[in-house]
Structure formats: C-alpha cells, structure tokens
Write a structure and sequence with these properties.
With 92 residues, this protein is α+β, with helices and mostly antiparallel strands. The protein has a domain of 51 residues: Double Stranded RNA Binding Domain, CATH 3.30.160. Helices cover 23% and strands 13% of the residues. The chain is built from one helix and three strands, in the order E-E-E-H. It has a three-stranded antiparallel β-sheet, covered by helices on one side. A hairpin with a 4-residue loop joins strand 1 and strand 2. The protein starts with 27 loop residues before the first strand and ends in a 19-residue tail after the last helix.
C-alpha cells in the first residue's frame, strides 16, 4: 500500500483505501446494577454494555466503528461530532 501525506495505511483496509482523520465522539457512561452502559448522543441507537469501565470503553469503540461502517455501507451521511460535556459545581 502506498502512503499519501502523513497518514499511515492500515493493513486490513481493502483496495488501498485510507480513512479520514479520526473524529472524537462523546460517550456517556452510566453505572448499572450489573456493570456499565454507554451511548453516544451523536450516534442515536449506538449503545454498549460491559462489566468494567475499561470493557465498556472498548465495547463502545467497537460499536461506534460498526455503526459508522453501517451508515457508510447504506450511503448515509456520517454525523459530525457535536456533543460536549461539562461539570457544574453546586453547593451541597
């Protein structure tokens, strides 16, 4: 595979296709009775569950990649990341 610009090709990509720069999506992680669940406000319907924070982050990354690949396969637009988060201090 040829390299173009400063991007490095990935061995599993077919037909010398390179991916665009990575997009950073917010995920919301919630504690559940049995572990954790997560979702991304920018990718409706994309969710994951796991036993630990490490597992939920790994599972969510895979779910998001699968979700985006499905959108691409269907010829649908890839949602741009637009969510953000912030903490607000409230006196107790």
């Amino acid at each position: 595979m040829a390299m173009r610009g400063n991007r490095v090709p990935h061995a599993s990509w077919d037909n010398d296709v390179e991916r665009a720069e990575a997009m950073k999506y917010l995920i919301v992680i919630e504690r559940t009775a049995t572990g954790y669940s997560a979702y991304s406000p920018d990718l409706p319907g994309c969710i994951a569950t796991g036993s630990t924070r490490e597992e939920i982050e790994r599972e969510m990354k895979g779910a998001m990649a699968f979700h985006l690949d499905g959108l691409k396969a269907e010829g649908m637009a890839i949602p741009q990341p637009s969510s953000s988060s912030s903490y607000i201090d409230i006196p107790a």
